[in-house]
Write a structure and sequence with these properties.
This protein is α/β, with parallel strands linked by helices. Helix 4 packs across helix 5. The longest helix is centred in the middle third of the chain and has 20 residues.
């Protein structure tokens, strides 16, 4: 029996003040915690400086961690339009940096992430963090943002399509035209 390929997945929970990241390896159904943490920006700094810092931080992480794929949590839209827009800026950086590094980037809504990790889309942050620790022995994220990013990576591991299968599906679609 052939060994299942090991895929390194970077999960990102974007935020302008705090962006969480989580790196896992997936070997078939086996998940391995490789690292997690956060990037923070100074809320008093100009927006452009904060976005540049976030971009540079993600570029450095991508260079060091060398993931194969990335996944980003979709933006939660709330009543405060300005806050949602700022979150959108951070999310754009979280999508752009891995894409510029040549990685496939997937996006998942919060409910899908929670369902993949906890079993219900209505899970609380504490439940998500507990299940992340259970599913990834050795993971002890200090901040909720890092736990959420690991949850994004776990979700992607469960939902991803292997590149060969994705290529086959694309070829079948193209041939059917």
């Amino acid at each position: 029996m052939a060994d299942k390929p090991r895929v390194r997945i970077l999960g990102l929970d974007p935020g302008l003040r705090v962006t969480g990241w989580g790196l896992i390896a997936a070997e078939g159904n086996r998940l391995i915690h490789l690292g997690s943490g956060t990037f923070t920006t100074d809320g008093e700094a100009p927006l452009a400086e904060r976005l540049a810092l976030l971009h540079r931080s993600l570029e450095a992480l991508l260079e060091e961690a060398r993931p194969d794929e990335a996944a980003v949590e979709e933006t939660y839209v709330n009543r405060n339009g300005a806050a949602t827009l700022k979150l959108g800026y951070a999310r754009a950086i979280a999508l752009l940096a891995p894409a510029l590094a040549g990685l496939p980037v997937a996006e998942y809504p919060a409910k899908v992430i929670k369902r993949a990790v906890v079993g219900t889309g209505a899970a609380e942050k504490v439940q998500v963090a507990l299940m992340v620790r259970h599913l990834l022995p050795g993971a002890a994220p200090i901040r909720a943002d890092a736990a959420d990013a690991l949850a994004v990576a776990i979700c992607h591991a469960h939902h991803r399509r292997p590149p060969a299968l994705a290529g086959l599906e694309a070829a079948l679609r193209a041939g059917g035209r």
